[in-house]
Amino acid sequence: MDTGDRLLTPGEVAALFRVDPKTVTRWAAAGRISSIRTPGGHRRFRESEVRALLEGEAELSAQPMPADEFNGYR
């Protein structure tokens, strides 16, 4: 079984990065990490990409988030 093709939920990714699942969703919405949408509209993340980010082989997009978006304000 190739675990590189496994899809992770925002909660699973959040646990790996030790952040809140909403943070992972914000990263995806901002284009900082790629995601796939299920037919029901839920986000899923490729385990291989997440592992590469964790191991430092890739980086979250270097584009900084505006401070108001980071804090959840509009």
UniProtKB/TrEMBL annotation:
One GO term of the biological process aspect: regulation of DNA-templated transcription
InterPro entries hit by this protein: BldC-like, DNA-bd_dom_put_sf, HTH_17, MerR-type_HTH_dom, SinI_DNA-bd
Domain HTH merR-type, residue spans: 7-55
One function term, GO molecular function aspect: DNA binding
Database matches in Pfam families: HTH_17 (PF12728)
Domain of life: Bacteria
Cited NCBIfam families: excise, HTH_BldC
Entry protein name: HTH merR-type domain-containing protein
Species per Swiss-Prot/TrEMBL record: Planosporangium mesophilum
